[in-house]
What we know:
The chain is α+β, with helices and mostly antiparallel strands. The chain is built from four helices and eight strands, in the order βββββαααββαβ.
Amino acid sequence: MREYVGEAIVLHKDFQGELDERVVFFAKDFGKQSAKIKSGRKITSKLSPHLEPGNLIKARWIEKGSLQVVDALKQEKLDFTPGFLKLVCDVLAEHNHDEEVWNFLKNNKESSTELLSVLGWNPKGAVCQLCSSTPRMFGVDSLGYYCADCGAKVRGSKIYIV
Ligand SMILES: [Zn+2]
């Protein structure tokens, strides 16, 4: 069994089965993690209220086959919209520790274009990956820019205006 401790920002929380929840958070030292909150759906859960999206937390989680949160304490609520947190959740690779992304998020600045720049997809000078015209959106699944016309034709991927 491996144990992890550290600061993290909660990106997403979802139901898992009858009683459990699944939380996705970006940990300062370990990158994006997806972990179970055992009995998180129970009203008596001590962990779940601390693990709301947008919360900056101190947490302890263990790896026992899969990851499970065993301790969480909310430090502060960061001022991000659900849409932005979803974008962050979708574009970050699992277990990819990234100090620059951490500092950017901790500064509580909600900017999709700056986030993409920090991740190495600088929108400045980028072109639509299908027709090379000026991009209007970023395909999260395909990790590339699209103009409005091409973006409208791309199916099955999440596109955000930048
Ligand atoms: Zn295009």
